[in-house]
Amino acid sequence: MSTGNSKDGDLQLVEATARPALPPRPPAAGGGGSNAIVQYTAPTLPEEEEDLEIKLRRIIENVPVRVNNTSGSSAGSGSGDFHQYRQMRRREQDRLTRMDIDYQKRKEMAEFIQRREERMKAAEDRTAKKRLKRQKKKQRKKEKNSKTTSSKECQNPKGGGEEEKESSEDGDGAESDDGNVAAT
Fold first, then answer.
1. How far apart are CA 92 and CA 85, in angstroms?
2. From CA 66, how far away is CA 135, in angstroms rounded?
3. CA atoms of 176 and 112, how far apart (whole Å)
4. For 161-183, what is each residue's pLDDT tens digit?
5. Which of 45, 1, 11, 83 is nearest to 91 (CA)?
6. Pairing between strand 181-183 and 173-175?
7. Tens digits of per-residue pLDDT, 111-132?
8. What pTM does this model have?
9. What does DSSP assign to residue 95?
10. Measured distance between the N- and C-terminal CA atoms of the chain, rounded to whole angstroms
């Protein structure tokens, strides 16, 4: 124990030597009162990395961190911990199951949409092919009727109108302008 006397030798007062002078600080860029010797400059990132950095920062700020039923590192397993573990495990298994079900539904829906588009395209192709066939048939029929009409007009210039009526009534059904056949 020290009594505060100099003879104890525990404490001595010594005069401090003068410190060397520091170099002058540069003036602050923004007029701020920063007393840092080295100014911090943010690293410059490429635009893509900057966007990712912004997204990551936004996610970190907005997503809450939930910690449930934590125990300290020195805590032992008590009798109630098993039930908590089982409950947390069941919740996690349910969550994973829901994620799998959701993934399967999305996958099946995408496959269904793709198959439906393929079927619709095939049906449209068949319809276009049949439409073209009907139009060709109609065109041939018109050409045939115009040839027979013109040849008969040459033979009988007066009575050409009655045969045109008969030729349109000869078929089983009459076709409309859009290619549909109407039964008579």
1. 10
2. 70
3. 36
4. 555 455 444 545 555 555 555 55
5. 83
6. antiparallel
7. 999 999 999 999 999 999 999 9
8. 0.37
9. H
10. 129
